[in-house]
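REQUEST ID: PR-0412
SUBMITTED BY: lab tech R.K.
PRIORITY: routine
TASK: structure prediction, single protein chain
INPUT:
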Amino acid sequence: MISVGGTGRRSRAQIGLVALIAVFVVVAAGCDWASVGFDLGNTRDSRHETVITPTNLPSLKLAWSTNVVWADNTTPVVAGGVLYEVVGGQLLAMDAKTGILKWKGQTSGGSSATVANGKVYVSATGGTGTIVAFDIDICKAVSLPDACSPQFHTAGLGVQAPPIVSGKYLYAAGYTTNVGAAVWDANGVDNCSVIAGALSCSPLAVYTSPASNVGASATPSLGSSQNRLFVPYGSTVMAYRAYGTTGCSGAPTVTVTCGALRTYHVPLAPYTLVPPTVRNDVLYMTGDDGKLTAFDALGGTTTCSGTPRTCTPIWQTSGTGLGSRSPLAVSDAFAYVNTTDGFASYGVRAVDLATHALAWTGTKGAQNNGNGGYGAVVAGGVLFVGSSYDSSVYGYDASGCGQATCAPLWHYTTGNSITGSPVVADGMMYVASRDGFVRGFALP
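STATUS: complete
OUTPUT:
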């Protein structure tokens, strides 16, 4: 039960790059938070959000709370004034300003949602690891309490994490031997057919993983000025060509195979849990060695060699205490790490990307169990982070406080652990917690 409480030819490669840039612009300009990582690079930084700032953050108040019975390990996403949350085998679409349920869709379990192209995509982890796609316009016409059915689904490749969408292409990491990731037609047209009364789509391409690995269970990243796909496998990250570019393309009715271009080795990295983060042609990862590691996302000759290329870090933080199995948030100036179990101290930490040194440490934050679904986010100069230790969400000045240790400027305590990430969209902050509530916060 749900209740509300409160003019020339361009090459295919050039076209693909233009489409990728366009997607970044559209996502940022709309102030939506339409995917868990915010953008294709998984930076978790809404740099054009300006309503909530460090100055007015202490005035942030609970605007509404909706009881969805159970909200575990998922992060809400917001697009077009609608908040989407996946709970208990259902996709819930709620009014982002009020929390009132608008429509719902039926899934078999699932990860957090991704919204693009007028559709909502959910990795239905409870079944065969397929992705199901809901047409928003069709679902809006389905009256409650009836649930909307998916428009199409992908062939199962053991997908366990939220997908990403770039233009007409839908990417997700697989969890099947030797298939690390795949790409499908995001509109459910190419390489799709009706099977047993349902529209099923086969991949346009599969990306091979090393023989010793069984795919990945983290969201991939699509970034760098070369338009590359980055997928984590154990202690490595593999870089591939985006579909439709030279070396990874084919007829729309067949599945092609695309091999890796290069490998990035992350010392003692978490086992395929953390999405790679790509910003300004730099690839960032954390590992169980307690360090933040940066790589050249372009695979330059200075740090990468061989065929296929193997890349070493361009820099790495010294000391320990920066290990995490939670996604990073990366702005132009800082990388934010929400540290997890296995380290001497806990709390959110900010690394200066210019000096590669620890800039400041937050007194609150951090998660336990290293589940990989948590992480800090940045919006409007504010850093938000949830904690499963004390069931609270905290807000900091993202630039720090001028001291080595900073206290939060704001916090709210829920009724149980926060095991997803907060998100910020259109001047509001949202978070789900294990007490079964999704909450929206706004300024007075």
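NOTES: Helices lie at 12-29, 136-140.
REVIEWED BY: pending
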